[in-house]
Amino acid sequence: MLTEGDEFVAVRITPRERQVLGLYAAGDTADHVARQLGISRETVLDHIRRIRVKYARIQRPAHTKIDLYRRAVEDGVLPAP
Fold first, then answer.
1. What is the pLDDT of residues 20-65, one digit of tens each?
2. What's the CA dihedral at 77, 71, 63, 36 to 10 degrees?
3. Rounded mean pLDDT of 66-71?
4. Is residue 77 a contact partner of residue 25, using CB atoms and an 8 Å limit?
């Protein structure tokens, strides 16, 4: 969790990556995200891989789905619980 004084760097993701991240990090499966967005499961997984790389580049790794959820909340993609 970021605290006051921590340097925070937001990841620069595309609008489509933001859609995928929001749905996937909220708990949907890659198959369900694909059906909702009218894209293939592989395309969803490609987006997730690119998102993870982008987070890693700014020293905010997201190795797990829970990590992606945390990043999505931190970046305002998903509302805080």
1. 999 999 999 999 999 999 999 999 999 999 999 999 999 999 999 9
2. -10
3. 97
4. yes
Task: Tell me how far apart the alpha carbons of residues 3 and 31 are, in angstroms, rounded to a whole number.
Answer: 35
CA distances from 33 to 2, 4, 8, 11, 24 (A): 28, 34, 28, 21, 7
Q: Give the separation between CA 15 and CA 34, rounded to whole angstroms.
A: 15
Which tokens hold the place of 55? 């987070």
- For residue 28, give the H/E element and its range: none
- Single pTM value for the model: 0.87
Q: How far apart are CA 81 and CA 3, in angstroms?
A: 17
Give the 3-state secondary structure of residue 74. helix
Tell me how far apart the alpha carbons of residues 23 and 41 are, in angstroms, rounded to a whole number.
13
Nearest-10 crossing angle of helices 30-37, 15-25: 140
